[in-house]
Amino acid sequence: MKEAKKYKTTCCYCGVGCGIVATDLGNGKIHVEGDKEHPVNKGMLCSKGMNLHYTVNDKSDRLLYPQMRMNRSMPMQRSTWDETLDRTAAIFKTFINKYGPDSVGFYVSGQCLTEEYYLWNKLMKGFIGSNNIDTNSRLCMSSAVVGYKLSLGEDSVPVCYDDIEESDCILVEGANPAWCHPIIWRRVEAHKAASPNVKIITVDPRRTQTASASDVHLQINPGSDVTLNHAIGRILIENDWLDNDFLKNHTDGFEEYRTKVFEKTLTESAEICGVDEKSILKTAKLIANAKGFLSMWTMGLNQSVIGVNKNLSLINLSLITGKIGKAGNGPFSLTGQPNAMGGREVGGLANMLASHREIANPQHRTEMEEFWGGNKISDKIGLTATEMFKSLEEGKLKAIWIVCTNPMVSLPDSRMAELAMKNAKFVVVQDISNRADTIKFADVVLPAAAWAEKEGTMTNAERRISYLNKIVDAPGEALPDAEIICRFAKKMGWGAKFTYENFSEIYHEFTQTTKGTNIDITGVSYELLKEKTIQWPYTNAEEKVKSSIGTKRLFQNGEFYTPNKRAKIHAVPDENLSEKLSQDFPLILLTGRIRDQWHTMTKTARVNKLNQHLPIPYVEIHPNDAKKRNILEEEIVEIKGKRGDVKVKAKITDEVKQGTCFLPMHWGRVLGNDFGRANNLTSNLVDARSKEPDFKFSAVEVTKY
Ligand code: SF4
Fold this sequence. Notes:
six-stranded mixed beta barrel; 28 strands; Phosphorylase Kinase, domain 1; oxidoreductase; metal-binding; Dimethylsulfoxide Reductase, domain 2; seven-stranded mixed beta sheet; binds iron/sulfur cluster; Rossmann fold
């Protein structure tokens, strides 16, 4: 037995990016505790983070060796890496030769490490010659990406966590950080406890734990965020609670915005939102009086058919008050997954290239073609997450390679997703766990190394890059994802461009793509990241200043990343484009996370302590709606929508608004047991620009079962 040894690393669950000290106990097992020296969490961990070692130590569900089958009616057979990748490469080449490069696709994950994310994109965009690579981050933050690009000129989070302690008004809209970003929330709570004049406003159709702890809870009707934000904007303008110098010198679009927000009176807006006028007035006043105004949001804004407009309408409030680029101020999109930000850096979306370059920009394509020295980069935007599965269903996309994500549970409209997988000609699933429901549809299964079994980097919600240590060996024949990609690339004939001595070389290659861009991290290396975390940008010049920790805050000089360096205020329409309610489906279904589970529960459901919080799925329904339907507490009910149905227990609570109900997103076993499978019901509408699904507004009916 080896001697116990401590390693610094980063939690692999959410975008908060907490530092962890993991102890290798010497027997293949580890123990974790919060890293007291880490600038994000200062030793704290939430329930998921503090139980992370159980998911590493329990290897009972791990995929241990490659498997394949010749057709789906046959059982999976153990295979070797060489045989499996030879066959996979042969099938990919056949489809590419016969139907063109757009006949294949990669569906990856915001949980991939930056190095892996970079390589998948290099392979698909730079060598296969298609842009058909998208990520499950499309389902959670692509509306924020477009919102930042349109308003600030680039997908760049302007703030940092230290702004929490510098703010005195925090507006949380469409988010429940008390459950979903717990360490951020603990910092907010601690700040308020130390400075009682700090005010928290929460905008959410549900009375969540975050809302309950807030000074103001605007319990709006689902889909009315833009109307609310415009109403706040109108009050700020009417009272001249603006930063007129900032507006004049650093923004465009204010006049159109003024006209737009004056289209509705406060009374009309309050009625549409279902909240009282006084609370909207109070909110506007708190924002106006704040020295530090921080807005935070997640899926309530992003996962919407009008997600981009919701983002823009909220960012507008920071711009018209000039509360951006200063300590304690700015719009802060909280990312859900641990490396959603890293994925954005490497161009992990179907419309992007490395370092915030765009597929649509010919110069950007040329730059990356020259850098990679591979094939011509297609000018056709690739298929986004839901488009990819639609294309499989229609038979146009022939092969899909799914990495580190479980779309059979996480995609909206699960039955369409199942049909897509059944129609797919060839499916590769690369995962750590045999619990991933998507495996049931696979032709090839590849075992991947998990967190703590490989090294690499991730970037959290505040642009902070962290190094993750390899602490224990992967079980069986499981390999780090980056190694699997390189082995496959060699089988495809591009070995020379995918040969690296170590993971550090892959990271270095990626950092060179950032040179001269707004996310320049040419000064960042593994050596540096082993000493400290870094917030981008961080150039070679900064690397020479040994005390530098990178860039805490962007736009401090009032110059934005737009061509004329001015931020753009967008006069967005405030209509709700979600599916319409009807007599048959009169209730609005909202979906979301619960405190102790992560995504599709393949990891967290293995930890007894985490299952104790809310062990079975339930639908929250308002007492008046339950009474009208004779539904009793804990009874099994059936929820029906246009796309499917689901059975689940009823939880009667006035924490949801009358006319709405809420179902956790995590459950979703396929093939027979659909108990609580939320995505049987969710809408397949997507935002026109971000292509992010409308997870939080589906028309349903709930009845006794
Ligand atoms: Fe991990 Fe997020 Fe919890 Fe921090 S807040 S310990 S990153 S799950």
